[in-house]
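Because showing beats explaining, we let one protein speak, sequence and backbone structure tokens together, and leave readers to judge.
___
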Amino acid sequence: MKRILILFLVALFHCSYLQAQSPTVSSADILQKLHKLNTVGSVLYIAAHPDDENTRLLPYLSYERKLRTGYLSLTRGDGGQNLIGKEQGEPLGLIRTEELLAARRIDGAEQFFTRANDFGYSKNPDETFGFWNKDSILADVVWVIRNFKPDVIITRFPTTGEGGHGHHTASAILAIEAFTAAADPNRFPEQLKYTQVWQAKRIFWNTFSFGTINTTSESQIKIDIGGYNPLLGKSYGELASENRSMHKSQGFGTAKTRGQTIEYFKQLGGDSVSKDIFENINISWSRFPAAAKLSKSLDKIIAKYNAQQPQLIVPDLVAFYKQLQALTETDATLRAWKKYALKETEELLLASSGLWMEAYAADYIAIPGNDLATTVQIISRNKSLVTVNGIRYINQDSALTLTLKPNELYTFKHIGKLPKEFAYSNPYWLNQKHSLGLYTVTNPMLIGKPENDPAANVVFTVTIEGLQLSVTRPVVYKYTDPVKGEIYRPLEILPAATVNIAERVYVLNDTLPKNISFVIKANIANVSGTLDCQLPAGWKATSANNSFKLNAKGDEALITVSIQPSATSLSGKISAFIKVNDETLTKGITRIEYDHIPYQFILTDAEATIVHLDLRTAGKNIGYIPGAGDDVVACLKQVGYNVTILTDDLLDKGDLKQYNAIVTGIRAYNTNDRLQVYYKTLMQYVEQGGNLIVQYNTNNRIGPLLAKIGPYPFTISRDRVTDEQAEVRILQPTHAVFQYPNKITSADFSGWVQERGIYFATETDAHYQSMLSLNDPNEKPNGGSLIVAPYGKGNFVYTGLVFFRELPAGVPGAYRLFINLLSIPENK
């Protein structure tokens, strides 16, 4: 039976993560959820970054203790490094957000964030708070606590610095202050229009033993979290491996563990206990006198539950749902638990009755003011009495009464128009320009949320055994991949066309014209218009033809614009915009596609950096051995180099004399085991007169560095300089590194971004010369950021200077110094 129905697409916020329409829930899952519904306790874990959470503890708290469990990561990890691709900054933060959400789907915890931007490594909390604005982030932590209402708060790190990273220490400081501030009506009173004060009962530090640092003690509270969950068929150590391994961009894949695992907890506040973090806390419904009978009702449902016939408990769940509805809401805490329990019970009702429903669009892109074709499907797969009473559509409800036959799939189709004012999809924290330390979020109700709500929803009104429910499902897109099978992706609300500039940065070292490519892509059929661009003062732009006409959705137009500076032109931004009919469209799109997370994208202003600098080059042919991923190749091409990616085939041939220099990408020796095989080939290349420039590698858990790198021994440390404005002292001013072909001075270290360098060399052989000395405030000078050794006719260079950040950012001095490294003359 098929009927054509009109569907209501409820406009909410935009989708950056795709949840399954009707989550797959097994009979074991239902029983697990029933037990959890009978537990009325919550715990919030707080740390600084994605991957800081204790991935063993979270599944234990969620599945074994059956607590409502949350993880508050202060940042989205934007300032970290990326082992799986080239994304840095905001795109990396989006990847790591989705990796956290993927981990939470495994361990059953909920995910929260603050507005803090991960601006890069910080060595102390004072520096961290200088970037973040401490009160702003404290307000966000308080907001999450007041809304989540945890009985217990746990920090991953201490306030005393053993966690190393300044963000880590700052997260503990904020957690302890928020523990008290959340209960104080005088702190952040503007929040109390939407929520209530909350006093968690206790706060603990989850102590640790990392490497040489052991903060655990037998006097601390100890909990064995290494148990086995028969409903899941896994131990918590096995689950820990699965959720930890979702942090793929950080290379955090881990082995599964089984057996006893002890976690330690040091109490930091609240009423003192000695045996358990939830000692003497009532976590049953009897904590609320008005709800005490709910526990007995759930006990009866659990006793009655039959995994082979889950529908048998549907009438009992209906009765329990009505008990929840009848609860008084005068107690704010009970009101919060009632809301949570109603949602959980609704999901149990849908799962037990076998009711599955979803809504999917005919295309993954929708344009405001245009039609959206949608298909809705619903099926009741168990023998429960289910009636569809209506499907809400734009500004009205459909009139429908349909009793579902068991295991019969019903399909409805609709074509409706999206409102013209429908906002474009984009991660909410990236909608506005932001400072280095703090994202701009103007809607306070979004703060704390891990991602946007779906772009559009369909609301089903159904009656299950006499109980009427409104069930919301997001409109998504699905298709079949011949290799991967059925794939879901979010619905994207996009402009009629986007315009992308081919490169992030354009570097001009003279006053000759340079061509810039603009790619205009149609998101709908029959798009035509013109391209214009805006440049800084003193620049001019010319184009043979700036008009375009795209007939089919997905068509692209390539328009080339020649830009030219004058002798006095300053660096700046070039902005692009396209005029389509009466609209001016200014957005470019960055797409992010990895198999372990849902499809992602970011809409940004269509702009690129144009840099006019005094730069001389020598030699033209560069070989590049890729590492974990960076944009250095594109930057070298910008200044006129011919760059060849050195594949295994090319390295096997060993004919490298044609290259003036060879550069290895970041972490190349960590990610490419074959480089050990080519060690002799590369050393022979240097010995015969070539320059080998090795960008930073790590000497830790991410690809332990066992390979030889240079002609003489050195060690890679974890030393770094995080202050991008730290003084840089030139130790060998007459060396060619600072003389040829560009004269390098202290001015070349101005304007660097995020940090100076990471993973410096140490324990260097006497053949190496340290070129620079630098340090963070109150630290000793470090000479390991740039070392050079002559070897035969050529030169070997290891550098921890973050050229992979500075070159894409268009930092002039970084270009000048890097070119000099490529150009070190042969040794006589």
Remarks:
- Residues 1-20 have pLDDT under 50 and may be disordered.
